[in-house]
Specification:
This protein is mainly alpha-helical. Helices cover 65% and strands 3% of the residues. A hairpin with a 7-residue loop joins β3 and β4.
């Protein structure tokens, strides 16, 4: 046998020589090289001669050579003979070798740990740390006993350096160790030991490693915060490696909810900025692999939440546009890059059109590469579902070929649907819902729902909720099938298993109410069950957003007509929402305009059927919402109203209701002139006169003694001259309330078909209200309205229909 030009006689080499030589070559030479094969065979033959010194080295060397099974068996057979004579360091190395080899069983573990704990040399910190990490990886159930034995040592200020303490922490992170007493003792020593390190580069390395491990232990947030502050100071003078930057960001992502909700949140923004500065410099000077670059950029994306900084956006685009970059991507790289590019497209308000366009081009290139070079249709369900969900998240400005992606999803579900688990089905459903408005047919919905319905009982609550939210957003071409077949099944799954609803937090329950009501699927029993969990909680996490979403959803399904039969939890939920909104008024500029619109419409809808006393308090909340919209979000509001449709109709009626209370004189005393002027312009835009048009409404007589209240009259009085309101945009085309006590409703096509409960809800509220007061209600279909240009002709048609019905 030749080695480096010299001759080595295996017969004269000691077992230690063989073990040392194999240890040297194990990671430098292929397993099938003749030299390695000869050394492995020699060790197999000389295994009985291994002693306490050579045994650990031989074991760890063979662990690195997968093809050494026979030699491993020979060496493992000598374990019980050599353990009694081993030192603590040798025992730790032996356990580590067994762990890497996958040969740890209960007997071997017990022998090594018993021997280790029985010898005084085992108290060396390096030996303890090495053994703990190996035990945590192989048999985590044994670690608590080992740590308990080490507790006096860990508390000793003279035991171990910062490096050993970090490794002890490493073992605890691997095994999810939870003993608070020992964790506190370790935390107390760890930071002081790291700060005692004089070499700043070493200190940074130790601190980033410690932070990375601490992020896996929920009870060490306080010490982790302190170390993050230390790292921030170090980064001002020291340069972190790309691995260290990754560790810092990864730790912050893991503990994000806890860290970023604390008072020192702004400090971490500075730390992220320092990491970004060093990362951008490192990528310009270091040749990183695709995996290293993309995984760290994904962490920046997680932390930035709303949008990337412009510098990171340019870095992503320039990196992805390099020659042959996309061609070198594998499946995982394609998934990560598509997620980054989709985030850029999804936040197009934050970036210039040219930047978003480049990101969209790159998404298209990645999708094309996945289809033609990586055979996307044969990806595993896990890879496929994540990839298509990220492509769909790019929205209108991102992925160009929505039809093609929808078709690909359909084929994949048909071919591999039986391999999908609940998570995959949830992701694909969500992706399809985002594509549905851009494709002619939701051709994947049938096979997808077949897979979902066949395993409804094994979904988690959050997954069922996500599926329901996604399906509620499909276009009208598929909504009928969803409403009448799918949603009852989803509702049944929640009601049959009480643990599903119990696992939903308040935010999820709000989303459930909103999604189910969108397609008219919110049954009374489900609402009562969902409401009980909300009213039991102390308060909303986001009071205005959550309360407005609930009230808007409930009044869109005509809740107030059902309130007499509503359960106690539902009634309590409505009160809780109103009280939450009243507590937040007047509304601050930071409140989202969408939430203010929901507050305005839902509060006014409830006021229609309230007594004057009850309505007056709610009106103050609604008026505050309207004033905030006019004062802080006027441009947004004008764009919103310009889109027309049912939202404009609802908003018009709400504004008309509030206008009865007056936006002039004393009622405007607290407003600035700009807000007053905007409100005047707003009412003019909506054709709501500032001065009510007097009309004669029946109080008694053949219409019944139960007359309209003043609040009810004011809506119709405010809707235009002669109490006529015309809303030009379909599907809510014309709203009429006449002097003669006849309500005329011209339905849109969707209302006639009954496909969207949310679109017809306000119509039902008003018509039910009028019918209950003795008004005559006439419904005109779109075909009957053709050729009629004004309210008079519609009114004449309505009277003819009334006459026909009474003959």
């Amino acid at each position: 046998m030749q080695l480096g030009g010299g001759s080595v006689l295996l017969s004269s080499a000691t077992p230690l020589d063989l073990a040392m030589l194999l240890h040297f070559l194990a990671e430098r030479t292929s397993d099938d090289s003749s030299l390695v094969v000869n050394l492995v065979n020699a060790l197999k033959l000389r295994a009985p001669e291994l002693d306490n010194v050579s045994y650990p080295i031989a074991l760890t060397s063979l662990a690195k050579i997968p093809s050494s099974e026979e030699a491993r068996e020979s060496v493992l057979g000598q374990l019980s003979q050599v353990i009694p004579s081993m030192t603590g360091a040798q025992l730790a190395q032996t356990y580590e070798g067994l762990q890497e080899m996958g040969a740890i069983d209960e007997d071997n573990a017990e022998r090594i740990l018993t021997s280790f704990l029985s010898i005084t040399s085992g108290s060396d910190a390096r030996d303890w740390a090495r053994l703990m990490v190996a035990v945590a990886r192989a048999r985590p159930q044994d670690l608590p006993h080992l740590v308990e034995c080490a507790q006096p040592l860990i508390s000793d200020a003279q035991w171990g350096s910062a490096r050993e303490l970090v490794e002890v922490l490493h073992s605890m992170a691997i095994s999810s160790y939870k003993d608070p007493v020992i964790l506190r003792a370790l935390s107390k020593r760890l930071r002081s030991s790291i700060l005692a390190e004089r070499n700043l580069s070493h200190r940074l390395q130790l601190a980033t490693s410690a932070i990375s491990y601490m992020s896996a232990i929920r009870t060490m947030v306080t010490t982790m915060e302190e170390l993050l502050n230390d790292v921030e100071q170090l980064l001002r003078t020291e340069t972190a490696s790309t691995i260290q930057i990754h560790q810092i960001l990864s730790a912050m992502v893991r503990q994000d909810d806890r860290l970023f909700s604390r008072p020192s949140r702004s400090g971490y923004r500075e730390l992220v900025q320092l990491c970004e500065d060093q990362w951008c410099h490192a990528t310009a000077t270091t040749d990183l692999t695709e995996r290293a670059f993309l995984s760290t950029m994904a962490l920046f994306a997680e932390i930035s939440r709303d949008a990337f900084s412009e510098r990171l956006v340019q870095l992503i685009l320039s990196w992805s546009m390099e020659t042959d970059r996309v061609a070198r991507l594998n499946n995982l790289d394609s998934i990560q890059l598509s997620g980054l590019l989709s985030r850029i497209c999804g936040s197009n308000d934050s970036h210039e059109a040219e930047v978003v366009g480049k990101a969209a081009d790159m998404i298209d290139a990645v999708y094309d590469h996945a289809c033609h070079e990586l055979n996307l249709r044969e990806w595993t369900p896990s890879e496929f579902s994540i990839f298509v969900s990220r492509l769909a998240a790019a929205g209108y400005t991102g992925l160009y070929d929505a039809e093609g992606l929808s078709h690909t999803i359909s084929l994949h579900v048909q071919r591999h649907g039986h391999e999908y688990d609940c998570r995959h089905l949830t992701l694909v459903t969500e992706a399809l819902s985002k594509l549905s408005s851009r494709v002619q047919e939701a051709n994947a919905l049938g096979p997808l729902w077949h897979e979902i319905s066949s395993r409804l009982t094994v979904f988690q609550a959050k997954q069922l909720l996500t599926i329901g939210i996604a399906m509620s957003k499909f276009t009208r071409d598929t909504v009928t099938a969803i409403q009448y077949r799918n949603f009852p099944s989803l509702t049944g799954a929640f009601l049959k298993d009480g643990t599903l609803l119990a696992s939903l937090d308040t935010c999820s329950r709000v989303s459930l109410i909103s999604a189910w009501s969108r397609v008219g699927a919110l049954t009374g029993s489900l609402l009562e069950a969902v409401a009980s969990g909300i009213t039991d909680s102390a308060s909303f996490k986001h009071p205005i957003r959550d309360a407005s979403r609930i009230l808007f959803s409930l009044y869109c399904i005509n809740l107030h007509s059902l309130m007499r039969n509503a359960g106690p939890s539902t009634q309590a939920l409505v009160r809780h929402c109103r009280e939450s909104l009243e507590a937040e008024a007047p509304f601050a500029p930071s409140i989202a305009p969408e939430d203010l619109v929901r507050v305005l419409i839902s509060i006014c809808a409830s006021s229609v059927i309230s007594s004057p006393t009850t309505a007056s308090g709610a009106d103050l909340v609604a008026r505050s919402a309207l004033e905030a919209l006019a004062k802080f979000h006027y441009k947004w509001l004008m764009d919103f109203l310009g889109e027309g449709g049912p939202s404009r109709s609802m908003f018009t009626m709400a504004a008309a209701w509030l206008a009865e209370g007056g936006f002039s004189g004393d009622c405007q005393g607290m407003m600035d002139e700009g807000t007053k002027s905007r409100l005047t312009d707003l009412l003019a835009e909506l054709n709501v006169p500032e001065i009510a048009t007097p009309i004669d409404l029946p109080v008694e007589g053949h219409y019944g003694s139960d007359a309209l209240t003043m609040q009810e009259q004011s809506i119709y009085r405010r809707l235009g001259v002669n109490a006529v309101a015309m809303v030009p945009t379909p599907p809510f085309t014309v709203r009429l309330a006449t002097r003669q006590g006849v309500a005329i409703e011209v339905l849109g096509e969707r209302e006639v078909l009954g496909q969207r409960e949310d679109l017809v809800a306000w119509t039902r509220i008003r018509l039910t209200l009028l019918a209950n007061r003795g008004w005559k209600v006439v419904l005109l279909r779109p075909s009957e309205r053709l050729g009629m240009k004004n309210a008079d002709s519609l009114y004449e048609l309505a009277l003819r229909k009334i006459g026909d019905s009474t003959r």
